[in-house]
Amino acid sequence: KRVGVLISGSGTNLQALIHGTQTSDTGAEIVLVISNKDNVEGLNRAARANIPTKIIRHKDYPNREDFDQALHNELVRSGVEIVCLAGFMRILTGQFTSKWKGKLINIHPALLPLFKGTHAQKQALDAGVRVSGCTVHFVEEAVDGGHIITQETVPIELNDTEETLTERIKQAEHKAFPRALEWVAKEKVKIGDDNKLVWKL
Ligand code: GRF
């Protein structure tokens, strides 16, 4: 399956997806990386792997609908079949998410449905939970909603800061995201007609 990855930053998850798809038979090939920001490290990672990149700046569009339409057009032009959100820091419109339903996956740095939204790691520390982790899920219009594909847990240490916990969660993300992409690419999990997940693991 042809995969497009949307990023806004450092792209360590993109790197894990590149590694996963290039080193084993995952049924997925990354054919396009789109960033909404210039000069981010994720673009360099894609370039080093010879993956085409495109910058689509949200600031160049008058509203979310037009920005999302530009993303959609570019993905379609490249024949993308599955889209991964890997640290993409824009909220997508329902118009976009419904067009990519069952083909659009996101990684979130907490065990959903806990700690949705931004600063999930700080939310976990503030709540005093003793484990956290990451979640890969199908994207629906509700932010950080949608069916859960896979999760990884990490312990929270007594001396953790937002930075140390973020780093530990990223290590977990780099295992979870390639696994989830493989399952979606090989249709081991999909959204069925009744809107429930269908598993063939
Ligand atoms: C990850 O923690 C991801 O969960 C969140 O944004 C971060 C992206 O990190 N949505 P990176 O750019 O992949 O290093």
Descriptive report:
- The chain is an alpha/beta fold and 201 residues long.
- It has a single domain, classed as 3-Layer(aba) Sandwich (Rossmann fold), CATH 3.40.50.170.
- The chain is 36% helix and 23% strand.
- The protein is built from 6 helices and 9 strands; from the N terminus they run E-H-E-H-E-H-E-H-E-H-E-E-H-E-E.
- A 7-stranded mixed beta sheet has the order 3-2-1-4-5-6-7. Strands 8-9 form a two-stranded antiparallel sheet.
- Bound molecules: 5-O-phosphono-beta-D-ribofuranosylamine.
- 5-O-phosphono-beta-D-ribofuranosylamine (GRF) is lined by residues 9-14, 42, 86-87, 107-109, 170, 173.
- This is Trifunctional purine biosynthetic protein adenosine-3.
- It comes from Zophobas morio.
- In the C-terminal section; belongs to the GART family.
Topology:
Layout: E1 2-7, H1 12-23, E2 29-35, H2 41-48, E3 53-55, H3 64-77, E4 82-85, H4 94-99, E5 104-108, H5 120-127, E6 131-138, E7 148-155, H6 162-185, E8 189-191, E9 197-199
Parallel strand pairs: 1-2, 1-4, 2-3, 4-5
Antiparallel strand pairs: 5-6, 6-7, 8-9
Helix pairs in contact: 1-6
5-O-phosphono-beta-D-ribofuranosylamine binds at residues 9-14, 42, 86-87, 107-109, 170, 173.
